Structure formats: C-alpha cells, structure tokens
Amino acid sequence: GCSYGRWPSRGRWTRSPPARNIGNVTLSEPATIMPASGPVALRYRGFGWRPLGRRRPAVHDIDLRIEAGERVLLTGPSGAGKSTLLRAASGVLESAGHGDVSGGLDVDGTAGLLLQNPGDAIVADRVGRDVAFGPENLRLDRDEIWTRVREALELVEFPYDLRTPTRTLSGGETQRLALAGALAMRPGLLL
Fold first, then answer.
1. Does 130 have pLDDT greater than 50?
2. Could you tell me if 100 and 49 are in contact, meaning their C-beta atoms sit under 8 angstroms apart?
3. Is residue 110 within 8 Å of residue 185, measured between CB atoms?
4. What's the N-to-C CA distance of the chain in angstroms?
C-alpha cells in the first residue's frame, strides 16, 4: 500500500509503514484524506446480525475496536460478513434488508461508506449535483456545499467539470466520483 500527505497527490507516493496484525485484521498508521471534524473510533461489542427469515446470522459475536485514525484492511471470503460490518458502522445496515441485531456498535462520529459497486452510489445526472447530494442533506450553506464539491473532486483528480453527465463515466471515473461524494461529507471514518 501507499500513504501520502494528501489523497491522492501525484508524484508524492511513499511506502506505507509496517502493518500490525490483530487476528484477521491488519492495522497500519493513518493517512490524512481530507480535513474532517476529527478521526472517528469504532467499536463492535459482541455484535451480530441475522437477516430476517434466516436461521444463521450473517455475523455474530464480533468484538473489535478500531482507534481513531487507524487504517484497517478487512478481508475474508465472499459471504463472510464484511459488507454487513461496514453497513452497520455507517448506519445503513437496514438497506441490506431487515434483520435482528445483537450486541453493540459504537461509532463516535460521522462515517462515509463506499459501496462495492460505485454505480450504486450515483444519485444525480450531473457530476456536481451528485457530489453535492451529501452536503445538501447536511443542510450546509450553498457556498460551503460547492466549496466541498470542488475540493472533493480535486482530491480524487476527477478529470471533468461539474456539468458532466454521470451516465457517460467509465468504471474508474465512477469510482472517483463515488469517493468524491463520500469525501465531500468530510467523514471522520471512511469505510
């Protein structure tokens, strides 16, 4: 992996610091992505979720603490519950369907979520309006919204202007747009 002072910054790539292993989770030093209200800690306490109509839980008895500013790589086979944990931490677990939650989950700030399919995150027909969606829902001042939109698109080195139709973007451009949308919210935790 790579770390950098500002994400991404051409020509300033450096090797990531050595990672520390804790069970199946790999931790390394944090990267500064964008000014936020501050890094966010995350804690799962015996957390579990069983989808409605299923006998077996998608995840169960998860105990994990991620300190503010840590970077974590969550790995596992398909169906292991990675997306379930991320959706729960970002507050959108019910978008995966109804189910029974057990244990606890503490997130001490705002979390942004990048979905596996970035096209699922597109909500508007133009790039600028799409990135503005999150900040608008925070009820920010219009000038602040568009400042965040421009900053986020610059951070991901998005190659087109704000009026570009989202339907014309390639897969990689759609990924950059989805990341810009998450960064415009200035989350303390990016999932």
1. yes
2. yes
3. yes
4. 16
